[in-house]
Write a structure and sequence with these properties.
By secondary structure, the chain is an alpha/beta fold. The chain has helices at 10-21, 36-46, 48-51, 86-107, 120-131, 143-158, 197-218, 225-239, 284-301, and strands at 2-6, 26-30, 57-60, 71-74, 112-115, 138-140, 165-166, 169-171, 177-179, 185-186, 189-190, 244-253, 259-270, 273-277. Helix 4 runs parallel beside helix 5 (120-131). The radius of gyration is 19 Å and the shape is globular. 45% of the residues are buried. The chain binds 1,4-dihydronicotinamide adenine dinucleotide.
Length: 306
């Protein structure tokens, strides 16, 4: 398996490291900024003797290195800078993604693409349209990270192991996310049966704000340890054909009553990428939240041209 990571910044380099250590395949790291991918590639190579593993990793400034990849992870893009509006960020990252996706189409026409760059749901849609790949081959990583954050906060609140929690988050990645308390299980029981509404609401709010909380501590840049773990989880499910159910941003064509956008829903992941979209039974208010989240994505999509 050849796995390429485009963008060797915080999320890209750490994703490459995690995937190499999990021995998911031969890893390629590429970045437009001169030297960064090469330097990080050499550094990661030097860790092999200490770790007693023989993974293969190569860094390059030349996008041609991604040729014939089985999986391509896209982390190339900018984070919002002071004074930059979301719309400006959207336009900037859309132009980077467009360029990157044309290269993926040309060099790795059979790859499964995992999009990470924000705004995630829009960039996933753009990747689908620009590559023209089938919808199962374009996956956005977003709500699985949100779900892991939700689980972490629930475990702390209940003083349990995080592994006792099976969290479910759907919707847009970011402010529009919908952590589903009713579908989230704590030792097999619905979270709604374990905590009262007030405590659940506080957990939901903290989950939605978790990314911004991390950014405010970091000062510049955004989270990368948990995001890279989430990337490796998605890629592992694909390359090992795990048929694993995970939350991911997928193109919907009528599922959940939603059409023509990419949004976070539970999916089954395997060698073919998204092998199935799982339709949860939603209450009226959960459905309404999901449609609102979908509408906010739809409104932003109108600002994109490609
Ligand atoms: P970063 O700034 O550390 O790295 C981005 C890298 O992309 C830079 O090294 C830059 O040189 C490179 N780049 C820019 N244009 C490129 C091009 N055309 N070709 C190749 N490389 C290019 O940023 P970080 O922290 O790694 O985040 C990357 C993206 O991932 C951001 O958009 C961020 O918002 C997003 N993100 C998404 C998450 C999710 O859950 N979906 C979680 C965390 C970050």
């Amino acid at each position: 398996m050849k796995i390429s990571v485009i963008g060797a910044g915080n999320v890209g380099a750490l994703s490459a490291m995690r995937m190499a250590e999990l021995k998911l395949g031969d890893i390629v790291l590429v970045d437009i900024a001169k030297g960064i991918a090469c330097g990080k590639g050499l550094d990661l190579e030097d860790a092999r003797q200490i770790l007693k593993t023989n993974y293969n990793i190569k860094g390059s400034d030349d996008i041609n290195i991604i040729k014939d990849s089985d999986v391509v992870v896209v982390t190339a893009g900018l984070a919002r800078k002071p004074g930059m509006t979301r719309e400006e960020l959207l336009a900037k990252n859309a132009s980077i993604l467009k360029d990157v996706c044309l290269n993926i189409k040309k060099l790795s026409p059979n790859a499964v693409v995992v999009v990470v760059t924000n705004p995630l749901d829009l960039m996933t849609y753009l990747a689908l349209k620009v590559t023209g790949f089938s919808k199962n081959k374009i996956i956005g990583m977003g709500v699985s990270l949100d779900a892991s954050r939700f689980a972490n906060l629930i475990a702390q609140e209940l003083n349990l192991n995080v592994t006792d929690i099976v969290p479910v988050v759907i919707g847009a990645h970011g402010q529009g996310m919908i952590p589903l308390a009713r579908h989230t299980k704590v030792k097999g029981e619905s979270l709604e049966k374990i905590l009262n509404k007030e405590r659940i609401d506080s957990l939901l709010k903290r989950t939605v704000e978790r990314g911004a909380e991390i950014v405010s501590y970091l000062g510049s840049g955004s989270a990368f340890f948990a995001p890279s773990a989430a990337v490796a989880e998605v890629v592992k499910a694909i390359v090992r054909d795990e048929k694993k159910t995970l939350g991911a941003c997928a193109y919907l064509n009528g599922e959940y009553g939603i059409k023509e956008i990419c949004i976070g829903v539970p999916v089954c992941l395997g060698n073919n990428g998204i092998e199935d979209i799982i339709e949860l039974e939603l209450s009226d208010s959960e459905k309404k939240d999901l449609l609102n989240s979908a509408n906010s994505i739809q409104n932003l999509l109108r600002q994109l041209s490609f």
